[in-house]
């Protein structure tokens, strides 16, 4: 990654992760509210349900060595390690996140690599992980692809570290599909640019573009799905939670980048409403 983008992402998550955990808990991703988005759920349960529904959708029933690319504070890593009695490895650009995830693994009795389940966490660039070829039978990327400045290189790295027969599960922010006769409008491009600026994103692409890259990289059994409706209520829930006294006080302490992100929450909500922002799923095997 470019050093400037690297620093922006690191600083954003260093500053905001503690407040997010305080208000929302360990899972730093969307929730699942049924395929039509109309199932009422407690917000943290919705996030756990998203993990379970992704596994069900990708037909992953077991794993031994898991890479969580963009692990946050270890929510998915620890959950998957416990579910599959596996060894999970999480990577993030944020030293604050890696330290907190390591602490949480220790609290859960999962920091010893000699027993399973276990989890370990590193500050690493997901485009250049330094892991050996064929290291993991599950690569999990839950809302990290949007941060990658080179989508092809990211998927190429996921493919490289997968064991033969291993599975990639990716869920990421996308924009709507486009065609030469139906490109993004000027207004849509500006809306996306505002999201990029606030959430430290280089750019997003459409789900068909991700599928094309996966095909070029020789992934097998490629499947995609658009779960925008299923997760769209999430942002309104976040907006509601940001209006509590504890959240407002936490925002004031967490710094300007986090405050900016909170003030811009409606950008994502409106993006879903107008069909511009999409929640894309991709899975494939090596």
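Sequence proposed for the structure above (286 residues):
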């Amino acid at each position: 990654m470019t050093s400037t983008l690297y620093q922006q992402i690191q600083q954003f998550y260093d500053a905001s992760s503690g407040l997010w955990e305080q208000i929302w808990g360990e899972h730093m991703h969307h929730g699942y509210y049924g395929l039509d988005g109309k199932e009422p759920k407690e917000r943290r349960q919705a996030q756990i349900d998203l993990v379970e529904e992704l596994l069900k959708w990708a037909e992953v029933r077991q794993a031994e060595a898991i890479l969580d690319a963009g692990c946050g504070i270890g929510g998915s890593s620890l959950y998957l390690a416990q579910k599959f009695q596996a060894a999970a490895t999480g990577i993030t650009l944020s030293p604050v996140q890696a330290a907190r995830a390591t602490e949480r693994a220790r609290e859960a009795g999962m920091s010893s690599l000699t027993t399973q389940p276990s989890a370990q966490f590193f500050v690493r660039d997901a485009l250049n992980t330094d892991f050996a070829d064929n290291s993991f039978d599950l690569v999990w990327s839950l809302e990290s692809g949007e941060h990658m400045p080179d989508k092809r290189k990211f998927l190429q790295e996921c493919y490289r570290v997968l064991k033969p027969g291993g599975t990639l599960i990716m869920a990421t922010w996308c924009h709507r599909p486009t065609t030469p006769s139906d490109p993004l409008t000027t207004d849509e491009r500006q809306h996306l640019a505002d999201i990029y600026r606030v959430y430290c994103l280089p750019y997003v692409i459409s789900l068909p573009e991700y599928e094309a890259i996966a095909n070029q990289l020789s992934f097998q059994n490629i499947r995609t799905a658009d779960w925008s409706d299923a997760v769209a209520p999430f942002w309104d829930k976040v907006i509601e939670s940001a209006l509590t006294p504890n959240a407002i006080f936490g925002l004031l302490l967490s710094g300007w980048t986090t405050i900016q992100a909170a003030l811009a929450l409606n950008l994502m909500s409106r993006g879903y409403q107008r069909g511009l922002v999409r929640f894309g799923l991709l899975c494939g095997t090596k």
